[in-house]
Design brief:
Blueprint lengths: L2 H13 L10 E6 L27 H12 L4 E6 L8 H10 L3 E6 L9 H4 L3 E5 L5 H8 L3 H21 L2 E8 L4 H14 L2 E6 L1 E2 L2 E2 L7 H16 L7 H9 L12 E2 L4 E2 L11 E2 H4 L2 H12 L12 H11 L1 H7 L6
Parallel strand pairs: 1-2, 1-9, 2-3, 3-4, 4-5, 5-6
Antiparallel strand pairs: 7-8, 10-11
Helix pairs in contact: 2-3, 5-6, 7-8, 8-9
Length: 335
């Protein structure tokens, strides 16, 4: 079953007030390792991902995992940690493509030019970039400015190759109280080069950074992002999402629209933030069998209405709940 088929089947569940269970995409944390120390990195439990060392699947196991997931959905987001620390990343992404996945790679991109085949197999490359200024980027990365310049070099390389590889390039930005002007510059860059733009507020644990709650400069930034979305393609998130992160409105979260898988092949239920990951997908052999086991063990999904105002949860949940807007959202992926 693919994205559209699952989306349509989910509409019935939403209409009668049930949690939709058909995945629109999977998020596979292929590693928790990372060579950076980003100030806003948070695993939902107050730690950076690299502070939770987790056994990783071998190449063959990772490919088998993807084949299992493909029977339930057709879009895979490969993330981390820093996924490019996996030497076998090319083989894993190539396998994902070969079994029919639409492939999304989330990375800082350091060393991208030395691994050109990655873009050859990526349908969507999401580069995490929160400022274009090397010194301020170094501060956000928690690393020397030379490392920040490597991130910016990856951006230049990706822009230069995106037309050749037909890869959709998205810049993913985390708005913090200290980088709001920088985020605006990234937004302007995406307009200049016809790139995608994805905005999330900084999350501390599972809640928005308190300094953003009454920040007028932040609200103005979101207003400008909404205006940019009306003018051009590529600004991602249905209007209800952008308005929601402006005012931090409560929303009905549907975490199973994007099941999250740990580096060891265990599935979080219902989401990463709850830290319950005792069901092994390789042992289950089937996504829906694994889901049934998780539900039997942990019960139904709790109602969370005022946290996780972050793109991966909130944007997908509101996309599912606003089908008319979802149709209009298609053009923003044609970048």
């Amino acid at each position: 079953m693919g994205f559209i088929g699952n989306y349509i089947r989910n509409l019935g569940s939403v209409a009668v007030g049930r949690q939709p269970t058909r995945p629109l995409m999977f998020s596979y944390y292929i590693t928790h390792r990372c060579n950076l120390n980003c100030t806003y990195c948070c695993d939902g439990d107050g730690k950076r991902f690299k502070e939770d060392p987790t056994e990783e699947l071998t190449t063959d196991q990772a490919c088998r995992l993807l084949s299992i997931l493909r029977r339930a959905g057709d879009t895979i987001d490969i993330t981390g940690g820093e996924p490019m620390l996996r030497d076998d990343l090319e083989a894993v992404i190539e396998h994902a493509r070969s079994v029919g996945f639409r492939t999304v790679l989330n990375t800082k991109g350091i060393g991208l030019a030395d691994r050109p085949s990655l873009m050859d197999h990526c349908d969507v490359l999401v580069l995490s970039l929160d400022t274009l200024n090397p010194e301020r980027l170094a501060t956000l990365l928690g690393r020397p400015v030379d490392r920040a310049n490597e991130v910016l070099a990856a951006l230049d390389y990706a822009i230069a190759r995106k037309d050749e590889t037909q890869t959709k390039l998205v810049l993913s930005v985390v708005a913090t109280p200290d980088n709001l002007d920088d985020v605006r510059e990234v937004l302007e860059l995406t307009a200049k080069h016809s790139l995608g733009f994805q905005l999330s507020p900084e999350i501390v644990g599972t809640a928005v950074n308190p300094a953003l709650l009454e920040c007028e400069r932040y609200r103005t930034l979101v207003d400008d992002t909404i205006a940019q979305k009306r003018r051009r393609k590529g600004v991602l998130g249905v209007p209800a999402y952008l308005e929601g992160i402006k005012d931090f409105r409560p929303f009905r979260c549907h975490p199973l629209l994007m099941p999250v898988i740990r580096p060891d092949g265990r599935m979080y239920y219902p989401c990463l933030e709850w830290k319950r990951a005792e069901v092994d997908l390789l042992e289950a052999g089937d996504y829906y069998r694994a889901l049934r086991t998780a539900r039997e063990k942990f019960g139904e999904i709790p109602a969370c209405r005022d946290c996780c105002h972050i793109f991966c949860h909130m944007a997908l949940s509101l996309l599912q709940r606003h089908p008319v807007a979802a149709i209009g959202e298609l053009k923003h992926w044609r970048i």
